[in-house]
Specification:
Order of helices and strands: HHHHHHHHHHHHHHHHHHH
Radius of gyration: 18 Å
Helix content: 55-70%
Number of helices: 19
């Protein structure tokens, strides 16, 4: 396990910077880039561990389904007791962790990387104390435009119907077979959108530092408390209402991204999708989530979805101020 992670890290940092990107995607230029890592390294480095967790999950489910349950149990222990506690300082080369899966559906990796880049750049904008608060919203919308301009890789900015995740023939098999690992993935997603709340809502640099620390502390309570993981997929409107109100397109993109994570786990695991059809089924789902012309929810439906799913508490709670305990 640790050897696999070391190989991924070495592949990611032993090459020139241009090669380390490992794809054709590029950061939108700006002095704000890397501000989140500089100001909140404890949070930023967790995402390197999250990337490993997603990658190893897909590789296990695809490369050797017969041994996947046992190996994922070992991976879960490694992630929750080791890697998340001591996350990598650098981003990992995910294709070193998931070589078989990356060959199967390279497009999926590219789409996830492109959306994760948007995540990171929005954190950077709201972490950069040199940018006037009144300018940050417009800059994030510009970043979202830049993201959406890559039509081949961008998730739709309209919220897609939850039935795509929950009502297909292959749906929900992973969360039923491995609720622990699935809950950990949902906790990742809670934190990824939840961190926006203190960055947008706190009124001073020190308050933002405290808010990020409180949000991280709630994430750790999820990890450390038996039964503490979200019971439903965290919806951005429920977990991060400030962010959703200010940037609804980005919020919908992230919900679509997170649904697609669940869908791929289900497709890889489900015996209702023959192995020879796994790749084409995933590619069809990816095309669906790039298409904003069908299977979309209205804004009202989307904003009310959390209550239909049992409320924000089932999704980990509103991120900040932290939930009342």
């Amino acid at each position: 396990m640790k050897r696999l992670l070391l190989m991924a890290l070495l592949m990611g940092v032993s090459r020139p910077a241009a090669a380390q990107r490992r794809d054709d995607q590029a950061y939108y230029p700006g002095s704000f880039n890397w501000s989140f890592l500089r100001r909140y390294p404890e949070a930023a480095r967790l995402f390197n561990a999250f990337d490993y967790g997603h990658a190893v999950l897909y590789e296990r489910l695809w490369a050797d389904p017969a041994t996947a349950p046992e190996r994922l149990e070992q991976d879960f222990e490694f992630l929750t007791h080791d890697l998340l506690r001591h996350p990598p300082r650098f981003s990992i080369a995910e294709e070193a962790v998931m070589p078989s899966y990356a060959r199967l559906v390279w497009k999926a990796k590219q789409m996830f990387d492109w959306a994760h880049l948007l995540h990171r750049q929005i954190y950077d904008v709201y972490s950069d104390e040199r940018i006037a608060p009144e300018r940050k919203g417009a800059l994030v919308e510009r970043l979202t435009d830049y993201y959406l301009s890559n039509h081949a890789l961008a998730f739709s900015s309209l919220p897609k119907a939850m039935s795509l995740m929950d009502d297909a023939a292959y749906s929900q098999v992973f969360r039923k077979q491995d609720p622990g690992f699935n809950g950990l993935i949902w906790a990742y997603h809670w934190l990824q959108v939840g961190l926006y709340e203190p960055l947008l809502g706190a009124g001073s640099p020190s308050a933002r530092q405290a808010g990020v620390a409180q949000t991280l502390a709630h994430f750790w309570r999820m990890v450390d408390t038996p039964g503490g993981f979200p019971e439903a997929m965290p919806m951005t409107a429920a977990v991060a209402p400030r962010f959703t109100a200010r940037h609804p397109r980005a919020a919908a993109i992230f919900d679509n991204l997170h649904m697609m994570h669940d869908i791929i786990s289900d497709i890889l695991l489900s015996d209702r999708v023959p192995r020879r059809l796994k790749a084409t089924t995933i590619e069809t789902a990816l095309a669906e989530f790039r298409d904003g012309s069908k299977n979309v929810m209205s804004t009202e439906e989307w904003m009310g979805m959390a209550e239909m799913m049992g409320g924000a508490a089932r999704m980990g709670g509103v991120a900040w101020p932290p939930p009342i305990r």
